């Protein structure tokens, strides 16, 4: 309907010029123009479309916007729901949770928490206050919210920073140095990607337990520091685009490979390294499986998603607090993605066009 | 005039070349050994530094992937339990002694693999059917769930090609849409699961939107509470599908997870397809247009062949990833620690259940090996299809 109205408005403006320009233009009803344009979008040519391509493009653009806006709404709405839901005050038990369930845009006034004493103002951040102070402890966890947040940061900063550098160094060696056995090693790494992780879950678990890594955080830190094969391959693709003459020139000037790597490759490949590092940071931040498999339920080293699982599964769980913790888990990565979206999407586009 | 100049320059060039050759000769005469030595040294350094730069990744891959793969393969023939009298190293070191059943005098190396095909579903989930005398193969049931989630792959593919075509049109703000559509990809799975679980609740947003009344998409009720009449409050029906909780309730719970994973994965594939579409040859497109092809034909004959490598890559990776689905169903059902739920859990839940929860490491390893074989065969099959298409 929106498209049709726009079409009516535009008809008077464009039509005279169009009629003058093309002799076959006829006066079709605007509805037929709209139908023709939508058909043209899907590739079916129609009379009205042929008669007025400019008009058809306009209508098709409007149609595209409507489709994309609808899609964007579907994509963003659950996030909005999450944020709105985190403000709802849900008491333990079914009554509160069904009130939260039926919320569509904003919690109704009887689900907002009203602190005793001051009845005029609803307290929006009640769930967050509970989450930050007592929610984790009261559901039988050995960690506070802040401790699990610290663990999460530890697991997603230390291995990623070191791992991305080791990956970049491997990528540099694959892309720019000629050494015996390079192709063999490359295919060995390529084949390792095909091995599914769950098949190794059991032996990795037994091995890490025997080494004593599951008692502490080492299990989630050390393996990541050896770099990731996929990251190395993406950075390698990027390094192929850099001219080799830079390295040759540096070599002639007497620089060793270590110096070339630190002073030329790292700065020049920084966009690719940053993008891959950010992507692995997000992956590690959201990594529920690692903590779940290797760490026991009452360990003090469990990370945020794992703690959230236990919080939700505990009988004394409060849905509002669970949703608030969901927001707190999503928010950092969303903010990070918002800041670096150009870099990340550019890197993803690069991999897409390379394949 | 011209000739003079050319001869002049030629002469100069020849003289210069001679001078260079002379000087090279002189250098070669002066230090032939040194030069050769220098080249060798350069090659040596290339090799040393090449290996050194690659070493962390090689060590990591061999240690955490290849060695554990070999150990898992060997372990799958033994009878090893976590927390038993022997350690895994002892067991692997004396593999011959610890083969399954050797101690009892009846060696049966493939015991766990056989069990995989013969074990039936037990536990409260299947009480109704077991009372009816029907047995359901456990591996089959869990594998069926895994394959069911894969219907999300074609749905997601069609949707993402559609949206990618929309975004690559010449419109303003295409970038903003790309960012918005990618948001679910970066969000943590567990937050998304808890949000969707409430949104698909019986009085939730989805039912209000679709006008489904009090429909129970997800039900964590007691046993036998999963039939159609419990979902909708309808009269009891004689239809087997509606009476059977495994098929009926399981279907809707799995559907919610499919919807969620399509929603979550759409942005990433859209970006891949937008990148692929920008690589589509514009000149070919224009030539086709001039030859009178309409948009539909151009899409199928020009755009799709150019986009095919991206689509193929995407299908291969999504099938490999889809076979490994584990966390989302477990979070939905809160069944991670109880070893999976027969109605929703993927195949990986069996590995976790036997290998880590019940501490039968050998059994878990055998189940894991079977998964690796399935994935390998599926991937080979896809590459075979791809090679046939090219012929």
Summarize the helices and strands and which ones pair or pack:
The complex is a heterodimer of chains A (355) and B (391).
Chain A: H1 2-21, H2 30-41, H3 47-51, H4 53-85, H5 94-101, H6 126-138, H7 145-176, H8 182-194, H9 197-211, H10 218-225, H11 229-240, H12 244-252, H13 257-268, H14 270-285, H15 289-294, H16 304-313, H17 319-339, H18 341-354
Chain B: H1 2-30, H2 32-75, H3 88-93, H4 95-98, H5 111-118, H6 127-131, H7 138-149, H8 152-167, H9 174-186, H10 189-199, H11 205-210, H12 228-232, H13 240-243, H14 245-278, H15 282-290, H16 295-323, H17 327-333, H18 348-357, H19 361-390
Distance between the termini of chain A: 41 Å
CATH first level of the largest domain in chain A: which class? Mainly Alpha
The helix count of chain B comes to 19
Order of helices and strands of chain B: HHHHHHHHHHHHHHHHHHH
Quick structural overview:
Chain A has 355 residues and is mostly helical.
Overall description:
The complex is a heterodimer of chains A (355) and B (391). Chain A is an all-alpha fold and 355 residues long. Chain A folds into three domains: 2-51; 79-135, no CATH class; 137-350, MetI-like (MetI-like fold, Orthogonal Bundle). Helix content of chain A is 73%, strand content 0%. Chain A is built from 18 helices and no strands. Chain A is flat and about 75 Å long. Mean pLDDT of chain A is 80; it is low at 1-25. Chain B has two domains: 41-111, no CATH class; 118-390, MetI-like fold. Chain B is an all-alpha fold and 391 residues long. Chain B contains 19 helices and no strands. In chain B, helix 8 (152-167) packs parallel to helix 14 (245-278), helix 10 packs across helix 17 and helix 15 (282-290) runs antiparallel to helix 16 (295-323). Chain B is globular. Chains A and B meet through helix 4, helix 5, helix 7, helix 8 and helix 9 of A and helix 2, helix 8, helix 9, helix 10 and helix 14 of B.
